[in-house]
Predict the 3D structure of the following.
Amino acid sequence: MTTKVNVNDKFKLFTEQWTPKVVGQVNDQHVKIARIQGDFVWHKHDNEDEMFMVIDGEIDIEFRDKTVHLTVGEFMVVPKGVEHRPRAQKEAKIMLIEPVTTLNTGDQVTEQTQEVLETL
Amino acid sequence: MTTKVNVNDKFKLFTEQWTPKVVGQVNDQHVKIARIQGDFVWHKHDNEDEMFMVIDGEIDIEFRDKTVHLTVGEFMVVPKGVEHRPRAQKEAKIMLIEPVTTLNTGDQVTEQTQEVLETL
């Protein structure tokens, strides 16, 4: 377990979007990375906070009452129970920290739902 | 809670070393940042994994049997119970993710121990 992870090297291992890959675990939280572009589905996680950090590019996290714009070196935590929709005009690379139990589409099941995540 | 954090801006708010500052919380984990330079104390956290990610500069995580060198964009998770010693030749900026219960010096109490952490 005591090996390091180079985040950019991990991004070279896949090109698909909206498919979070597990790159680490700290306690009961997964560290995931994803490429995202376009609009995701509106959803919430009833019991799980979700941390978004931008590694490359820019993203928006839409809430019902506002939009938060994130760029490289910025992060935010979406609290449990809060509806949100991630989106990116151009492809962006993000890192996520959230419980190992978290489903990407939360309380929604769509064609973007990823039930089984690949570990890189 | 739904506000973003710019990590570099947070680093502008302090200059002291080896004093982790809390900049976020995701579930039961704190997101902390710290400036480090020199050798820390050998220690372990019996019940807590600890994630180190380099934001600026380079660090070493020494273990009893090896040393892992981390640079910008790299992270590693130090598993619970494993003795380690962070160090940096020049000042480095790091981000930490670890349970809210984690004491920086783990099972050791030294002049570097920070019992109460500032939130930025």
Remarks:
- Chain A has one helix and nine strands.
- Chain A touches chain B through 37 residues (CB under 8 Å).
- The beta strands of chain A are 5-6, 21-26, 29-39, 50-56, 58-62, 67-71, 74-78, 85-99, 118-119.
- The mean pLDDT of chain A is 94.
